[in-house]
Specification:
The strands form 3 sheets. Strands 1-2-3-5-4 form a 5-stranded antiparallel beta sheet, sandwiched between helices. A 3-stranded antiparallel beta sheet has the order 6-9-10. Strands 7-8-11 form a 3-stranded antiparallel beta sheet. The chain has 2 domains: 83 residues, Phosphorylase Kinase, domain 1; 151 residues, Transferase(Phosphotransferase) domain 1 (Transferase(Phosphotransferase), domain 1), CATH 1.10.510.10. It is α+β, with helices and mostly antiparallel strands and 247 residues long.
Length: 247
């Protein structure tokens, strides 16, 4: 594997363990290394299949310098990034792990999103957003969240990210459970009350629901076996007026 050789040469270490991680677009590996003095360290390697590493390196570096939780880039070339390994729990796993109090990680996720949106916003209406809101792109270390995929970014109102991530929460297995609606409502409310970050205090809740519906439509296009069920849920969201709760 060429990227393993690159890591060993660039960092002066020996790889002792390699595990391929889930990724639809690229090859992503978790690796354990050993250096002089038996020093052990872990890294993540990302190999780009159809694009250059440069764009993601630029975004990650800019966010890292602003104190936003992202992995530090250790080394890179045009087709490969070696990044800091962030230990923790993926958001997709947090949803079904009821040992940790939900309020703790919901507030942490709201804070991370608020910081991201506050980093680069235009006229307090449009901001830097994550293109891919898959729940595997968020890691909770027990105190704070990290975002881990910035291969591409986009500029939208903050409601886009909130609606999108709520769609991923709701249609992730087990799909559309009652308690998941509570998580989504709590996340949006927590976002609106994050202290000390001046931006986007007033959200358009109807816009959040519109962006949620758009993400559900995209999911229905991808998943033929669940398309009918998702389309039924889309109809529910489209027809039901807002009554108290946000979703």
């Amino acid at each position: 594997m060429d990227s393993i050789n690159k890591l060993e040469l660039a960092l002066g270490v020996k790889v002792s363990y390699t595990e391929k991680k889930h990724s639809l677009r690229n090859n992503v590996f978790f690796v354990k290394t050993i250096a002089g003095g038996n020093l052990k360290q872990c890294y993540v390697i990302k190999e780009y299949a159809n694009s250059s590493a440069g764009n993601e390196v630029f975004i990650i570096d800019a966010l890292h310098k602003q104190g936003i939780n992202v992995p530090e880039v250790i080394w890179y070339d045009d087709k490969c990034i070696i990044m800091q390994y962030i230990p923790g729990v993926l958001l997709t796993d947090l949803l079904i792990d009821h040992k940790l109090e939900q309020e703790i990680w919901i507030n942490a996720l709201a804070t991370w999103l608020r910081k991201l949106h506050g980093f680069m916003n235009i006229s307090n209406q449009v901001c830097l957003c994550m293109s891919d809101l898959n729940l595997r792109n968020f890691i909770f270390n027990g105190r704070e969240f990290y975002g881990i995929d910035f291969e591409s970014v986009c500029f939208y109102p903050p409601e886009r990210d909130l609606g999108g991530i709520c769609a991923f929460i709701l249609n992730n297995d087990p799909m559309f459970e009652y308690w998941k609606y509570g998580i989504c409502n709590s996340l949006i409310k927590a976002y609106e009350t994050v202290p000390g970050i001046k931006s986007f205090d007033r959200l358009d809740h109807e816009a959040i629901r519109c962006y949620l519906i758009e993400e559900l439509k995209a999911a229905a296009e991808r998943r033929e076996s669940q398309r009918h069920y998702l389309n039924e849920k889309i109809k529910e969201f489209s027809c039901t007026p807002l009554m108290g709760s946000i979703l």
